[in-house]
Amino acid sequence: MPSIVSVRGVRKSYDTGFEALKGVDLEIEDGEILALLGPNGAGKTTLISTICGISQQTEGTITVGGHDTLKDFRAARSLIGLVPQEIALEPFERVENAVRLTRGLFGKRRDDAVIEKILRQLSLWDKRDSKINELSGGMKRRVLIAKALSHEPRVLFLDEPTAGVDVELRQDMWNVVRQLRADGVTIILTTHYIEEAEAIADRVGVISAGRILLVEDKDALMRRMGQKVLRIELDSPLGAVPEALADYDLQIEDEGRTLLYTYHTAAPRSGIGRLITGLTQAGVALADVSTAQSSLEDIFVDLVKENAA
To answer: Which residues does UniProt call coiled coil (predicted)?
Structure first.
């Protein structure tokens, strides 16, 4: 799939000597949802701001739809919609007028049909004549998205789109994002909510200390780096792991009534069959067996720790 955004060798440093981006390379595919994960201060917002032209890179090149963001700024920026984390809206402006005004700022001719489509898509049509200060926090965030879509961009950046939003509204927002992708919009979101990336992203990028650690298909990443935990409930408590099973590095929990066995999903053999056989031969009676997949959060934490070491 072709790249709609290409970031090559991008560095961003300040007069103080601090380097926020350290040679970032990133290819964003047309029509995908890319979740960019990273701890506070990792460089997520700096990277988005640089791609969107809010700040300029010190080194490297960025193109959007083939347009260089420095040499052909207007053409590149016209392809981008940006939804900032902060809700900064004119409180007494009406919803439809606010969205129409943003479209005009990009030099687009008035098109009431486009505005109506966007407002309906975001469940804002019934609120079109409402003043911004009359809306809930979730609706205000929808207005931000509507304004970002008003000039019909091909790429939409969402910086912490569900920050401060309750669980129900967060899931509602995920549905909006999926619908936008279905309509052909490429979406890049930064998030602190690991479950957000797990729920809606096609690919996951991890950034830490100004460097991209990886960008990979979400499911492939979890298969490659994920772990599973086999939880074995016992009929009777164990005081210690049988010597014959010492190589399995089993953990005892619940006062000896539970054994935990961790294995990598990418390994050619899990060893579960031999483990169960070994337990039976050792006279350990099993009451129940279950498995749990490691989450994207586990993988993310391990990657950041590994990079910091």
So the answer is: none
**pTM beyond cutoff 0.90:** no
Taking CA atoms, 90 is separated from 98, 101, 144, 216, in Å, by 8, 12, 11, 39
Which of 223, 247, 267 is a domain's end point?
223
User: Do 77 and 130 share a structural domain?
Assistant: yes
Q: Apex CA 307: angle with CA 305 and CA 309, to 5°?
A: 70
Phi, psi of 245 (to 5 degrees): -110, 15
What burial class does residue 13 get, using C-beta atoms within 10 Å of its C-beta: 0-12 exposed, 13-18 middle, 19+ buried?
Answer: middle
pLDDT at 59 over 90: yes
Output phi, psi for 55, to 5 deg: -130, 165
Q: Summarize pLDDT for 96-131 with one digit per residue, the tens.
A: 999 999 999 999 999 999 999 999 989 999 999 999
Q: What backbone torsions phi and psi does residue 262 show, to the nearest 5 degrees?
A: -100, 130
Same domain, 219 and 232: no
**Section 42-71 average pLDDT:** 94
Query: In CATH, what number is assigned to the domain containing residue 73?
Result: 3.40.50.300
All residues at 6 or more sequence positions from 91 whose CB lies less than 8 Å from its CB, including other chains: 131, 132, 133
**What is the domain-level CATH number for residue 268?**
3.30.70
Range of the domain at 132: 3-223
Domain total in the chain: 2
- Let me know if residue 235 belongs to a domain: yes
How many whole angstroms separate alpha carbon 101 and alpha carbon 82? 15
Tell me the C-alpha distance between 266 and 41, whole Å: 32
Q: What is the 3-state secondary structure (H, E, C) of 95-134?
A: HHHHHHHHHHHCCCCCCHHHHHHHHHHCCCHHHCCCEHHH
* Same domain (yes/no): 77, 178: yes
